[in-house]
Amino acid sequence: MTTTPAPGISRPAADDLFRSVFRRHAAGVAVITARGGNGPAGFTATSLASVSADPPMLSFGVGTGSSSWPAVAIAGHVGVHILGEHQRELAATFARRGADRFGPPTAWREGPEGVPVLDGVLAWLVGRVVARVPAGDHRVVLAEVVHGDFAGSGRPLLYHQGRFTGLRD
């Protein structure tokens, strides 16, 4: 699927406009995990959204060129972890290409449905994947929530202007 920019705007200008606008949009930071054929996989996401309350459903985007896509493409379940502002380095680790994301100092365990669950997060969910919708060079994954815990404490980590940050009072 290809898109055509609006009349009067070139493709490079549309790409620049898109990036500039979304740099101004503050987004919560999550780490998505899945059990892969070669071990656990995961990535940092700012595209997490609530989709439905009945049934409880969420969505996130994942690039088809990412190292995590092969695991997410076949996973029956995924983990969604809401990061706290004390977890900037964890967010950076899961965003970095080639990083050993599940090696020390990352603390994690096998959770429900065999999904990797990160320790110390504000909250986590496990969702049963119900759809993977093509969207340009990404897929939008829809998952129905089947397990979770919101017992963590602290303030949420945000992504704004190209960096991880926290809330200001």
Task: Fill in the keyword field for this structure.
3 helices, seven-stranded antiparallel β-sheet, Pnp Oxidase, Chain A, alpha+beta, 16% helix, three-stranded antiparallel β-sheet, 169 residues
- Strand percentage lies at 35-45%
- Helix content percent band: 10-25%
The averaged pLDDT comes out at: 93
How many individual helices? 3
Structural write-up:
This protein has three helices and twelve strands, in the order H-E-E-E-E-E-H-E-H-E-E-E-E-E-E. By secondary structure, it is of the alpha+beta class. The chain has one domain: Pnp Oxidase, Chain A. The strands form three sheets. The chain has a seven-stranded antiparallel beta sheet with strand order 3-2-6-9-10-5-4. Strands 1-11-12 form a three-stranded antiparallel beta sheet, covered by helices on one side. Strand 11 and strand 12 form a beta hairpin. It is globular.
Helix and strand topology:
Elements: H1 11-23, E1 27-28, E2 30-36, E3 39-45, E4 49-53, E5 56-63, H2 69-74, E6 77-82, H3 88-95, E7 108-110, E8 116-118, E9 123-135, E10 138-149, E11 158-160, E12 163-165
Structure at a glance:
The protein has 169 residues and is of the alpha+beta class. It has helices at residues 11-23, 69-74, 88-95, and strands at residues 27-28, 30-36, 39-45, 49-53, 56-63, 77-82, 108-110, 116-118, 123-135, 138-149, 158-160, 163-165. It has a single domain (27-162), classed as Pnp Oxidase, Chain A (Roll).
